[in-house]
Design goal:
Layout: H1 2-7, H2 9-26, H3 32-35, H4 42-47, E1 49-65, E2 68-78, E3 85-92, E4 107-112, E5 120-125, H5 137-149, H6 155-167
Antiparallel strand pairs: 1-2, 1-4, 2-3, 4-5
Helix pairs in contact: 5-6
């Protein structure tokens, strides 16, 4: 069979074009899917530095892979021991996820190539809870006063808590 292919130049050319096209489309480093962010770059996952990033901006690229959109994300990347910086990443929407999930403010876990910090791979969602909003000091004082008037706390506890609330202002 190999002799039949090598003896027919047009068939050999066709075979080389098909193999080259597949290598271009699915190659590990320079492939089309790699450019679109559809595959994880193994080098960053193996040798990268772990960190966290916040999504600043999301754009739909209008590209679909297996009916799932490819999004372009602007991230603010935080790596321990390094100043925060911005990087753009293309990310194919994972299964069972919607574009609404990937909005600004979303925090994700990342791996970064130490030699090329703009090469960022999203590895998952950050599991830390966002900071709680600060309590309203006026409402806290009103609640504290009601508790003191109802006899639920002592005068000493009332004064200590009042000083704590006023100290947060």
């Amino acid at each position: 069979m190999f002799d039949a292919i090598t003896s027919d130049p047009p068939l050999l050319v066709l075979l080389l074009v098909v193999v080259g096209g597949l290598a271009w489309a699915f190659g590990p480093k320079g492939g089309l899917l790699g450019l679109l962010g559809a595959g994880l770059d193994r080098a960053e996952l193996k040798n990268g530095r772990a960190g966290e990033a916040t999504v600043l901006e999301v754009r739909d690229t209008a590209i679909r892979i297996n009916k799932r959109p490819v999004l372009q994300l602007l991230l603010e990347v935080h790596i321990p021991g390094r100043a925060p910086y911005q990087a753009r990443v293309s990310k194919r929407l994972p299964p069972h996820s919607s574009t609404a999930t990937w909005g600004p403010g979303l925090r994700v876990q990342v791996m970064v190539d130490p030699m090329q910090p703009q090469r960022v791979v999203i590895t998952g969602f950050a599991m830390t809870a966002p900071p709680a909003p600060p309590a309203d000091p006026v409402r806290a004082m009103e609640d504290l006063k009601r508790m003191a008037d109802a006899g639920l706390i002592t005068e000493h506890e009332f004064e200590a808590k009042k000083a704590e609330i006023l100290g947060r202002l």
